[in-house]
């Protein structure tokens, strides 16, 4: 099976929405956090084109304080990869699902076993932010064998010499990291956000979505002047941490959706 | 030579690599290139050694323990890294990295620290070379090691307590990595052990190679031969890597002693965290566990990848000792030789004491990686004044 030939479900789904003229919105929600299932369904109903489900890890180096706290609370509440993944098939979203987690949780059970678990749990794609392109080959191969797409991160610091290969290897979409830093909302959209998206768009026709530092619908609109869409995480999770629940998440997603649709 | 350069992917056998966010990959590549270039430049190497000698107090002596040797029936030679400036071997690495950072045009150092030894050493190098310095330290350790926090502040560093996760060393590493992800353009991450993404494990070992190189020459002079064993404590494993690297091509047995509560190599479960594939203490699904021992400096759930490699090929062995054995060794060296060892270094001695019966008549070179001043408060609580008195 060769993922390079036929796009997987995530990529196919996002391409068709993009090609129909829509800007793409992906929402991240920490799996295992109290009320996460309802938040996922509400986010999809409010206009998210795909959902990123976080599997909490003990050492989330790419995450800022908001997602760290949600991950830690989920872990303290007993969340495990198995408990999060077992729930996914029951979620009624109608959109593709990616997991966002850290590489040791794939390494520990073994690539084949972890990929198979994802595939049998209604997951379409994986994002492993501490598995950079240069180390990603064996995992991508194992994942592709069972139809799991691997979304690679492209950073503002990624040199041109590697960016083409990285985007070529990415499946699902290309995750353009909007700034030098970890996940979290910022007061302003970094100039690097549009720069990296433009560089990615220059070397791939896969959907390019910008994430990290997208704090408001205005940021999202600005980022989408170049990118095909945005990923929002900390802004969403902050609603959960503050007790706003699925309704708070739904309102937030709707505000992003409206802004993106209005252009 | 067993301890040679890693391959071009930064692997020692199957261990090592570069498992960090994409943002940091170019910084790791730049660092590797800069290190290769600097280490090839005799002016850089000379500057490094001049500072280690004139400022750091090298070479460190080799001390023969006459009373202890007689008591144990094992001839014990101590490599006295405790006599270095700032009180441990850590200064070798930070001088090397700070000089390199400066050569690369970086103006700021960030570091993680557990007990505070590496943080103090980094703050020292930053003061010496007029660089900005920020040290991340788990909140639990900030409270346990108030004296070292103040020491770093005196040296002009900013110390930030880390309240995420287990609030200890592994979380301080995470926070230092997060800082570096955001500040990579002007900042160098001065990692404190032979761990992390390539080139750190190799580079840090190379800066500590001076320990093994000196010790080998000192042994040859004293013994007209080599020691039967080379013993060092292992948390991340930097002092062990430094001294082992002087003997890996010999017949000497290499023994890295882990704390029972932090036996990453001893448990032998492969994992990936903090940029490297190595052995890692983790639960049944792969969440990283906390290490727990009497010495904060060894409370690290992972281990440098080259140690994982040396263990996997059988070149070095990695037994562990209990806190109680360490407490006894700490007192033994103090009373028989007048040397108060760091609790970390006392692990190495604890193993020799336990195994003395099978080592009769042999020569043991033991890396005394640090001095115990920092541990005196803690030992006063553990032992109580009466027992000592």
Index terms:
heterodimer, A: 263 residues, alpha/beta, TIM Barrel, 9-stranded parallel sheet, 9 strands, 45% helix, globular, B: 389 residues, 7-stranded mixed sheet, 4-stranded antiparallel sheet, 15 helices, 15 strands
Please write out the topology:
The complex is a heterodimer of chains A (263) and B (389).
Chain A: H1 9-19, E1 24-30, H2 36-45, E2 50-54, H3 65-76, H4 81-87, E3 97-100, H5 104-107, H6 111-119, E4 125-127, H7 137-145, E5 149-150, E6 153-154, H8 160-169, E7 174-177, H9 191-203, E8 208-211, H10 217-223, E9 229-232, H11 234-241, H12 245-262
Chain B: E1 11-12, E2 15-19, H1 25-39, H2 42-54, E3 62-64, H3 66-72, E4 75-80, H4 90-103, E5 108-113, H5 117-128, E6 132-138, H6 139-144, H7 146-154, E7 158-162, H8 169-183, E8 187-189, H9 200-223, E9 229-233, H10 238-244, E10 253-259, H11 264-267, E11 270-273, E12 275-279, H12 305-312, E13 316-317, E14 320-321, H13 323-337, H14 343-354, E15 363-368, H15 376-388
Parallel strand pairs in B: 4-15, 5-6, 5-8, 6-7, 9-10, 9-15, 10-13, 10-14
Antiparallel strand pairs in B: 1-2, 2-12, 3-4, 11-12
Folded structure, characterized:
The complex is a heterodimer of chains A (263) and B (389). Chain A has 263 residues and is α/β, with parallel strands linked by helices. Chain A has one domain (2-262): Aldolase class I (TIM Barrel). Chain A is built from 12 helices and 9 strands. In chain A, strands 5-4-3-2-1-9-8-7-6 form a 9-stranded parallel beta sheet. Helix content of chain B is 45%, strand content 17%. Chain B has 15 helices and 15 strands. Chain B has helices spanning 25-39, 42-54, 66-72, 90-103, 117-128, 139-144, 146-154, 169-183, 200-223, 238-244, 264-267, 305-312, 323-337, 343-354, 376-388, and strands at 11-12, 15-19, 62-64, 75-80, 108-113, 132-138, 158-162, 187-189, 229-233, 253-259, 270-273, 275-279, 316-317, 320-321, 363-368. In chain B, helix 2 packs across helix 4 (90-103), helix 4 crosses helix 9 (200-223) and helix 13 (323-337) packs across helix 14 (343-354). Chain B is globular, with a radius of gyration of 19 Å. The A-B interface holds A 57-62, 64-65, 68-69, 72, 75, 80-82, 103-105, 107-109, 129-135, 152-159, 166, 177, 179-182 and B 9, 17-27, 164-165, 170-171, 174, 177-178, 181-185, 270-275, 277, 280, 282, 285-289.
């Amino acid at each position: 099976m060769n993922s390079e030939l036929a796009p997987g479900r995530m990529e196919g789904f996002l391409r068709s929405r993009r090609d129909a003229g829509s800007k793409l919105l992906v929402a991240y929600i920490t799996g295992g956090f109290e009320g996460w299932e309802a938040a996922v369904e509400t986010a999809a109903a409010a206009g998210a084109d795909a959902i990123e489900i976080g599997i909490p890890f003990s050492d989330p180096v790419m995450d800022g304080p908001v997602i760290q706290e949600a991950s830690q609370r989920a872990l303290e509440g007993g969340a495990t990869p198995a408990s999060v993944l077992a729930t996914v098939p029951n979620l009624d979203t109608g959109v593709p699902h990616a997991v966002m987690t850290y590489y040791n949780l794939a390494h520990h059970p073994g690539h084949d076993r972890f990929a198979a678990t994802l595939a049998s749990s209604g997951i379409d794609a994986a994002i492993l932010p501490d598995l950079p392109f240069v180390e990603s080959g064996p995992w991508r191969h194992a994942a592709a064998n069972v139809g799991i797409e691997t979304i690679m991160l492209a950073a503002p610091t990624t040199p041109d010499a590697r960016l083409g290969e990285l985007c070529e290897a990415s499946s699902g979409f290309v995750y353009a990291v909007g700034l030098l830093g970890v996940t979290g909302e910022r007061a302003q959209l970094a100039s690097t956000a549009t720069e990296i998206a433009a560089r990615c768009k220059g070397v791939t026709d896969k959907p390019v979505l910008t994430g990290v530092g997208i704090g408001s619908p205005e940021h999202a609109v600005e980022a989408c002047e170049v990118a095909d869409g945005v990923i929002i995480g900390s802004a969403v999770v902050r609603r959960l941490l503050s007790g706003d629940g699925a309704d708070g998440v739904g309102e937030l997603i709707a505000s992003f959706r409206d802004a993106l649709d209005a252009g | 030579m067993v301890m040679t350069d890693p391959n071009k992917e930064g692997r020692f056998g199957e261990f090592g690599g570069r498992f960090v966010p994409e943002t940091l990959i170019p910084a790791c590549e730049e660092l590797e290139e800069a290190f290769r270039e600097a280490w090839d430049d005799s002016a850089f190497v000379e500057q490094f050694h001049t500072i280690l000698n004139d400022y750091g107090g090298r070479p460190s002596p080799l001390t023969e323990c006459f009373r202890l040797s007689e008591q144990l029936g094992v001839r014990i030679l101590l490599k006295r890294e405790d006599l270095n400036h700032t009180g441990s071997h850590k200064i070798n690495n930070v001088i090397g990295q700070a000089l390199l950072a400066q050569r690369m045009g970086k103006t700021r150092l960030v570091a993680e620290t557990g007990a505070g030894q590496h943080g103090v050493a980094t703050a020292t190098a930053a003061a010496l070379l007029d660089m900005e310095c920020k040290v991340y330290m788990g909140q639990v350790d900030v409270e346990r090691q108030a004296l070292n926090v103040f020491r770093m502040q005196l040296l002009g560093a900013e110390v930030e307590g880390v309240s995420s996760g287990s609030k200890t060393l592994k979380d301080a590493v995470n926070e230092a990595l997060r800082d570096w992800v955001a500040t990579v353009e002007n900042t160098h991450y001065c990692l404190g052990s032979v761990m992390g993404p390539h080139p750190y494990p190799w580079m840090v070992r190379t800066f500590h190679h001076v320990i093994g190189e000196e010790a080998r020459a000192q042994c040859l002079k004293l013994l007209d031969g080599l020691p039967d064993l080379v013993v060092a404590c292992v948390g991340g494993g930097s002092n062990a890597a430094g001294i082992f690297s002087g003997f890996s091509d010999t017949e000497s047995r290499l023994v890295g002693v882990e704390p029972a509560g932090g036996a990453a190599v001893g448990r032998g479960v492969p994992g990936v965290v903090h940029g490297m594939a190595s052995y890692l203490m983790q639960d049944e699904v792969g969440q990283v566990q906390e290490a727990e021992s009497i010495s904060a400096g060894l409370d690290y759930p992972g281990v440098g990848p080259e140690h994982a490699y040396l263990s996997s090929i059988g070149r070095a062995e990695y037994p562990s000792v209990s806190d109680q054995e360490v407490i006894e060794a700490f007192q033994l060296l103090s009373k028989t030789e007048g040397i108060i060892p760091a609790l970390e270094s006392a692990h190495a001695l604890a193993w020799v004491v336990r195994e003395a019966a099978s080592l009769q008549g042999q020569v043991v070179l033991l890396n005394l990686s640090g001095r115990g001043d920092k541990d005196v408060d803690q030992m006063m609580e553990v032992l109580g004044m009466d027992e000592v008195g």
